[in-house]
Write a structure and sequence with these properties.
The chain is mostly beta strands and about 120 residues long. It is built from no helices and eleven strands.
Length: about 120
C-alpha cells in the first residue's frame, strides 16, 4: 500500500520558518521524482518544487524561489521542504507527491499524493 504522510505544518508568524516532512512507503521512493504542491483556500493546486531522484536537481516556483528548499533522504524514504521568510500568501495545505516521469509543473497529475499538512502564516 502506497503512503505519503506529510508532517510539520502549523501556525507561524510572517517571516518565520517551518520544515515540512513527507514519509513515503509502499513504493520504490528512490526511483520517483518528488514534488511539493499546495492549495490555498478557494484556489487550485499550485506546484511549489520538484526534486530529481538522487536530489541533484531541484526547481522552484518563482513565488518561493530563494525562500524554500526541497531535499530528500533516499535512505530514509523521506522528502523535506524547508520554508523560510514565510508570507501570508504561503498559507495553504501542502502536499507531497510522486511521479515516475515528469509531466512538468503545469500538469496537476501525480502518480501518488499525500493527504496534506496545513500551513498558516498569520500574526
Amino acid at each position: 500500500q502506497v503512503r505519503l504522510v506529510e508532517s510539520g505544518g502549523g501556525l507561524v508568524q510572517p517571516g518565520g520558518s517551518l520544515r515540512l516532512s513527507c514519509a513515503a512507503s509502499g513504493f520504490t521512493f528512490s526511483t520517483y521524482l518528488m514534488y511539493w504542491v499546495r492549495q490555498a483556500p478557494g484556489k487550485g493546486l499550485e506546484w511549489v518544487s520538484t526534486i530529481s531522484t538522487r536530489g541533484r536537481r531541484t526547481s522552484y516556483a518563482d513565488s518561493v524561489k530563494g525562500r524554500f528548499t526541497i531535499s530528500r533522504d533516499n535512505a530514509e524514504n523521506t522528502l523535506y521542504l524547508q520554508m523560510n521568510s514565510l508570507r501570508s500568501e504561503d498559507t495553504a495545505v501542502y502536499y507531497c507527491a510522486a511521479n515516475l516521469y515528469d509531466r512538468g509543473p503545469s500538469d496537476p497529475r501525480y502518480d501518488y499524493r499525500g493527504q496534506g499538512t496545513q500551513v498558516t502564516v498569520s500574526s
